[in-house]
Amino acid sequence: MKKHLMAVAVMATAACALYAQTPQAQQPEAPGITVEKITAAASVENREPVGESAVFPKGTVRVYVWTKIAALSAPVKIKHVYYYEGRKAAEVELAVNSSPYRVWSNKSVRPGNWKVDVTDEAGTVLATLEFSVTSEEAAQPNP
Question: Which domains does the chain have, with CATH numbers?
Fold first, then answer.
């Protein structure tokens, strides 16, 4: 029994030594880009979103996607990738020149479901925003 335990211990030690010499798979480096806030808005004024919402009424012509980015090594580029009803509709490249930095893009919209992915230069999705434009008229208050 002692011989078996000793053999197991020797094999385990050898396996550990061999494992330590085997090169490990490199993990991709984190891009160092963080989305601190993302929102959809009716407009942007003084670099801030105005009329933030996840649902816009019928007749909305344009929606702005506003993003606050922190980057360890600015300048970097990000993209707003727009999807309408699951199909890619547009891609807008934005420069992040310092950190933190506010950037936005806008898109002509129509009723339906929209999604915007924020990606880094390698195409890694950093954040996702969903919003919709209703196909119904906004409710009118009764006089």
Answer: 33-133 (2.60.40.1930)
